[in-house]
Amino acid sequence: MTRDTPNLAPRALWQRLQARERRLVALAAAVVMLALLWGVALAPALRTLREADGQRAALQAQAQRMQQLALEATALKALPRMTLPEALRALEAAVQQRLGDSAKLSVVGDRANVTLKDAPAAGLAQWLTDARVNARAAPLEARLMRSSASAPGAAVTWNGTLSLGLPSP
Q1: pLDDT confidence of residue 114
Q2: For residues 94 and 131, is the Cβ–Cβ distance under 8 A?
Q3: Taking the complete model, does pTM exceed 0.70, yes or no?
């Protein structure tokens, strides 16, 4: 290194700066450090804190729903066993009461098949609940399509087939 080549070491550069320039460089470095601290540490933590209440409420609702389902499953397990003829009578009654002429029921062994034609969604939901609780029938397979014939704003109807497992004899 010759005498006329300036020394480019950081300490030498710092020493060559005037006091005002040193303060400005220090201030710029502090601003950059604060921006890094905000972007890496503080902003994600604050976002997590803001979202925590909503997430906690959603998880509590989910836990409550799971507890309801567990209670329902326990209640269903506690029901007395039902014979196949009793289950068929309960299922036929539920079909007539909830679905009427929009459903046809056929039974093969311990499996009930229901064919739906323009069955109202609300009636279908109630019928499925009745079938599960009153006839102890569990859905095995569903091939449903939303009816395209309904006008906009009209009640939703379904077409297709449902297969339910009946209690074993």
Answers
A1: 95
A2: yes
A3: no
